[in-house]
Amino acid sequence: MEDLDTILNESNSLDDFNNLLDVSRYKKTINAADKIGRRKHAKNFDQYKKLFEEVHADIASGRRNIVPFKQYDIEENRFYIQNGVMLYIISISRDKFIGDNGKLNARMHVIYENGTENKDLLLQSLASSLYSKERNGRMITEVIDGNSIAEDFGANFTTGYIYVLKSLSKDPEISKISNLYKIGFTNNKIEQRLENAKNEITYLNAPVQLVLSAEIKNINAQLLERTLHHVFKDKQVIFQDDKFKKATEWFIISLDDIEVKINKIISDLQK
User: On the CB side of 76, how many CA atoms lie within 13 Å of its CA?
Assistant: First the structure.
């Protein structure tokens, strides 16, 4: 798992945080000829995009785990990580054959979360890649209950809570803004943090509505909040009214985009 402190400390500028989810650095070891000759843009990727987002959400919540690829089978309808990129096995041909290494082989249809697909990937080729230490192969578990793998991997250590708020202010400058949300962090219960919202500048001196919350486990929740702020820096609101200028954690962005980004950051940090 990448250390969030390391990611933050390695950044030379605030803009570097916009590249936090860029997985291109993992792809350098992919053979160029294979990439060009085998992978192509997936025309029907939209039907799988939501599936990848759901898996990231499961990983973030602890319902799935990312584990090293060891003595596992490669199966249809399963998720794996190759060179830092998540992939999904759509189908494995029933026409098996013996490969040059003497092992049973088959052709597969695989789709990648970067929007490409390979309809002719060899099972043994993927297995060899996943076993390779250089390519850091991983497998994503099926959905698990709270009493099994999640506990074994220590997924029960809460470091804090990320919350997303909508302002209920009646101030014209505030109420006219659509998709205005505050992204915050607290070590304590969220309700306790919001009790005095109407008297705090950070909450625009007004009541707020909690629209999204996430209990963060096993990574630094406060640094995750900072990371989100930097990722969404181009969406940050700078209020013109002097009385609100210290309220710097408000952004104009859809709630869905915030939720997807939170889940993806947490998931990617575990690859």
Answer: 9
Q: What is the pTM of this model?
A: 0.54
Quick: pLDDT tens for 69-80.
Answer: 876 678 889 999
| pLDDT at position 11 | 47
Distance separating alpha carbons of residues 44 and 166, to the nearest angstrom = 35
Of 115, 137, 152, which residue sits at a domain end? 152
Is residue 126 located within the same domain as residue 188?
A: no
Q: Is the CB of residue 184 less than 8 Å from the CB of residue 216?
A: no
Q: Structural domain of residue 70, as residue ranges?
A: 31-152
In a domain, 3, yes or no: no
- How many residues does this entry show for the chain? 271
Are 64 and 175 in a shared domain?
Answer: no
From 211, 164, 210, 209, select the one nearest 184 (Cα to Cα): 164
Single-letter code of the amino acid located at 257: D
8 Å CB contact between 129 and 31: no
Same domain, yes or no: 102 and 195: no
Number of separate domains in the chain: 2
Q: Which two tokens stand for residue 159?
A: 């470091």
In sequence order, what are the beta bridge partners of 110? 89, 118
In the numeric block, the tokens 């008297």 are attached to 199
32 CB contacts (<8 Å, ≥6 apart)? none
Residue 13: inside a domain:
no
193-249 pLDDT, tens digit per residue, is: 898 899 999 999 999 999 999 888 767 788 889 889 999 999 999 888 888 888 999
